[in-house]
Amino acid sequence: xxxxxxxxxxxxxxxxxxxxxxxxxxxxxxxxxxxxxxxEAGPKDTHIWxxxxxxxxxxxxxxxxxxxxxxxxxxxxxxxxxxxxxGKVLGGSSSINxxxxxxxxxxxxxxxxxxxxxxxxxxxxxxxxKKAENQSRGADKYHGTGGPLPVSDPRHADPVSxxxxxxxxxxxxxxxxxxxxxxQEGAGFFxxxxxxxxxxxxxxxxxxxxxSRGNLHVETxxxxxxxxxxxxxxRAVEYRQNGTLRTARAAKEILxxxxxxxxxxxxxxSGVGPADLLKSHGIAVVLDAPGVGxxxxxxxxVRLVMRCTQAVTLNDIVNHPVRRIMAGVRYAAFxxxxxxxxxxxxxxxxxxxxxxxxxxxxxxxxxxxTDKMGEKLHAFSGFTASVCQLRPESRxxxxxxxxxxxxxxxxxxxxxxxxxxxxxxxxxVKVLRKILAAPALKPYVVEExxxxxxxxxxxxxxxxxxxxxxxxxxxxxxxxMGNDPLAVVDQRLRVRGIEGLRVVDASVMPDLMSGNTNxxxxxxxxxxxxxxLEDAGR
Length: 538
Description:
This protein has 538 residues and is an alpha+beta fold. The strands form seven sheets. Strands 1, 2, 3, 11, 12, 13, 14 and 26 form an eight-stranded mixed sheet that branches. Strands 8, 18, 19, 20, 21, 24 and 25 form a seven-stranded antiparallel sheet that branches. Strands 17-22-23 form a three-stranded antiparallel sheet. It is globular and about 70 Å long. The chain is built from 13 helices and 26 strands.
């Protein structure tokens, strides 16, 4: 680390200590040769609820660790604004997410490769999923052990979640013991990024083991203001920490890992983005890159809530003072029980249309119910099952509103803009209702609370989707990889037209993959780490 002109110099400066940034920080410092600065806008991950799996509900609107963004009014959702939680803490969204470990379908990555992204087919990425993983079930063709990321089976036996899997089989959806194995289709239990009943964020699994290395420097409460260029070469990052403006120079490269909202925001603030937008905010254009912030995609969900016949749901535990205390004691003593529940216990993947090659619908089943995620659980015994369309056609955008790095960006997702998306949700709700009406769930169901038995026609189901649909928190593709004029990064994740700058996070996904985005984001950072070190050695 050299000091010159009041600036510190490192080999690499990583902007954002999230799901990708913590992986990069670990891998790039491992051989001791590179000095790395990791910048994080949020605090250290000391908040108590970060480490308890069920704590994601408490962190949903906890502004000390969450950017708490909102979309613009969504035309397809009756003009509602959709709340967008994003991690603002070491570990990023992996510190506040629902913990599900779902890689997507092999076909997702083969589609990326077919679109000209050499090196990103399923055979290319599977070794990186395995390298990251410490699979509690042991290693096999699809899974690895000995990696930093613990992947575990559920630690809370729940009769209703079990009954959901049996009910799915009764309506013809096969039972699948591993959504990340030979095939994704079917019903079963989700695995989670937890270790012995505690959350394993990338801050825990990747950053903590690397923290003692003398060549890694971590700065929290450090909000990146802009990237500084010499010509078209990225040279330094300007950041604000405790009211002071500081500059960190990068001898080799700057790596932007700020996520699907903050990465394009930082590029735009730095003069890399749509020229007309930058000029309208008085930002000097370094590179007119109209693709920066375009092609935003996200998974939407529609939740069905059922009233339960028995006091076996989380609602019953949370609303009962003694049972609530017992659950806390059980967790403290054994790291088991309801506090280990992730944002889906069991679930299913199926096709809304038999003509499809692979599933386009994911169901998350939860043994509790609430009006809105992050809010109080219902007073009655209840459970939830949500429909999520995996490969939406709708596309949106992310654009800065001002030249102020602290101002939230303008987020437009355009949920349900495509006929395919609308049809998938209508069909998905119908199939889910069949599962919920199957014999195995009969002993647990009093009635459907939302949307309720009055909602039966396609028009009414779609109206319910527009009224209540929200996000599954999977924004991607705002700095997407590709070869076409709007692609932002190349196959080695280098920003096209700029030297010394890469983007490494979910924003580079060519399109949204068929599952939860955390595992693929970690894979992308594992693969990027190898590419960065290879390129430096040339």
